From TrEMBL:
Keyword annotations of the record: Signal, Transport
GO BP terms, alphabetized: peptide transport
Alphabetized InterPro entries for the sequence: Peptide/Ni-bd (IPR030678), SBP_5 (IPR039424), SBP_5_dom (IPR000914)
Protein's UniProt name: ABC-type transport system substrate-binding protein
Single GO molecular function: peptide transmembrane transporter activity
Stretches assigned to the Solute-binding protein family domain: 71-432
Keyword Transport among UniProt keywords: yes
GO cellular-component term (any): ATP-binding cassette (ABC) transporter complex
CDD domains reported in the protein's UniProt record: PBP2_NikA_DppA_OppA_like
Pfam families the record matches: SBP_bac_5 (PF00496)
Length: 529
């Protein structure tokens, strides 16, 4: 045999082995048990975790956040903005199709399902239509024509323009570079106009999108999704996605953890099931207990308005409370309520980790609190808030600090946060999808959500700069400066990160995607060995 033939034979064997390995990754039915049953699958209304998870499989956005929390193209080839950050232009991908659907009983041909700029304009106007009353309509409130459209003075948002089939333009009233992050939000997806208008309310239970999986049916306590054969996305190794043939979601919030979890590949644990898991010391070598980060934040913080506490005491109090909360009893309490201490966060929230890092206390000189130091705290009356309040009171008592806590219902609590000054501490929960919103809401002195009454002129200037700058590199420099400022000067005592707890089958491969908040819902990357 000649050298050439030997070389070709070896090459054929290598290619065959590579193909077979990749081929084995494809197929399989992923079974997921979720606690909450979805009420709607229309992305402009979806609210609970299950609804959002399913919608991420069915629908696609123009932009996404990558594993580092940075903007990345998705259904766009590229985008650009003008120097003033008032006009954003998008070049759309041309090989994107809506899932198959029927109109008047007839299957729509694939060439008629191609996604164009007109589909994006209609989808964004559908989201913001005042008749729909979507809680996410405000995504486009800075766009020219939004107000007239909301007030039904116009039948379109004039600031959203179709240039041609694959070019879209969005114009804002004022300079605001962070607007681009809105297009990576969960509700900013593309939807087929004809399918929505034809099916009416049925679209909420029979969604049609462009994502890696298409909706098949919703029967009893199960939703079935099947593989989108025309999905456009590939891996870095050019493997066509998705790997899985179908996904089945089941819904159950029973208190007991029975052996039926072995029927599933991902099994979400309820509060009672987690207690059952811990108390009975149940272990299964074929399943891992995994903590998966979500977007929810829960924090305890100081009100920064002038009070009777001097600066040295303020620093020590923060340090003592942070230290006292970081104990086994406290961590167990918040974990059972689906939160973890911020120090345990995974990649994807590094920015928040730095901001909430412990303030350095003067460890060389012992500082005593003032005699009979009293602190006032207000909180909502949720179960978790009540438990945290009691733990805080117990721990602070050890340092001769008396904590007076008043709990209110949510409406009264929010009213007091905005108006009352009778507090030293308060608790709050939020949900954030990107770091700009987190900083602008909490630390910008003019923000309505700055319940700390925090003021720092340098932070204000840097936030204003980011609003105007379209240069991502310069924005990152501004974020780095703010990290340093807030590391040494922030009102937080502790931040807890929301988590979901799952039992996960060892058979499921590529579980590393669950370790990052920005990749945890990319189920198209899962496969079975």
């Amino acid at each position: 045999m000649t050298n050439k033939k030997i070389y070709l034979l070896i090459l054929f064997i290598i290619v065959s082995i590579t193909f077979n390995v990749n081929a084995e990754n494809y197929g399989g039915n992923l079974k997921i048990k979720m606690n909450k049953r979805p009420l709607t699958l229309n992305p402009i209304f979806s609210a609970n975790q299950t609804e959002k998870n399913i919608n991420k499989q069915v629908f696609d956005k123009l932009l996404i956040l990558n594993s580092q929390g940075e903007l990345s193209n998705n259904l766009t080839e590229f985008w650009e903005s003008n120097a003033e950050s008032t006009v954003f232009k998008f070049k759309l991908k041309e090989n994107v199709y809506f899932h198959p659907y029927k109109l008047n009983g007839k299957e729509i041909k694939i060439e008629q399902r191609k996604v164009t700029a007109a589909d994006w304009k209609w989808s964004f106007e559908y989201l913001t239509d005042p008749k729909n009353k979507s809680p996410y309509a405000g995504i486009f409130k800075k766009v020219i024509g939004y107000d007239d459209y909301q007030e039904q003075k116009s039948n379109e948002i004039t600031g959203i323009k179709v240039i041609d089939d694959y070019q879209l333009q969005i114009s804002l009233k004022d300079s605001y570079a962070p607007f681009i992050y809105n297009l990576a939000k969960e509700a900013a997806v593309v939807i087929p106009k004809k399918a929505v208008l034809e099916s009416g309310q049925k679209f909420s239970l029979n969604p049609i999108g462009t994502g890696p999986f298409k909706f098949k049916n919703f029967a009893n306590n199960r939703i079935k999704l099947t593989k989108n054969q025309n999905y456009w996305k590939k891996t870095e190794q050019q493997n066509k996605l998705p790997y899985l043939e179908q996904i089945e979601y089941y819904f159950d919030n029973s208190k007991n953890l029975n052996k039926n979890y072995q029927e599933f590949d991902l099994y979400q644990l309820s509060y009672d099931q987690l207690i059952n898991y811990y108390h009975n010391n149940q272990r299964d070598e074929n399943y891992n207990l995994k903590t998966i980060i979500n977007n929810n934040l829960y924090f305890v913080a100081f009100d920064c308005r002038d009070n009777d506490i001097n600066e040295s005491e303020y620093k020590v109090i923060k340090h003592q409370i942070r230290s006292s909360l970081n104990n086994d009893k406290f961590n167990q309490t918040i974990k059972l309520n689906n939160y973890i201490h911020n120090e345990n966060m995974s990649d994807g929230f590094n920015f928040l980790n730095k901001i909430s890092a412990k303030t350095e206390a003067n460890s060389e000189n012992e500082v005593n609190f003032s005699d009979n130091l009293k602190l006032k705290m207000i909180s909502n009356n949720s179960n978790l808030s009540l438990q945290i309040s009691e733990l805080l009171k117990t721990e602070l008592k050890k340092f001769n600090v008396k904590l007076e806590v008043k709990n209110y219902n949510w409406n009264k609590y929010l009213e007091l946060l905005k108006s009352s000054s009778q507090r030293d501490l308060f608790m709050m929960s939020y949900s954030y999808e990107n770091k700009f919103e987190f900083i602008a809401d909490n630390f910008y002195s003019k923000s309505e959500k700055n319940y700390f009454n925090y003021e720092n002129r340098r932070i204000d200037n840097l936030i204003d700069y980011i609003k105007l700058s379209k240069n991502m590199e310069n924005q990152n420099i501004a974020y780095t400066i703010m990290e340093e400022i807030l590391f040494h000067d922030n009102p937080y005592l502790v931040i807890f990160k929301g988590v979901d707890l799952f039992l996960i089958s060892e058979k499921l491969s590529n579980q590393k995607i669950l370790d990052n908040i920005h990749t945890k819902d990319k189920l198209e990357l899962f496969y079975f060995e």
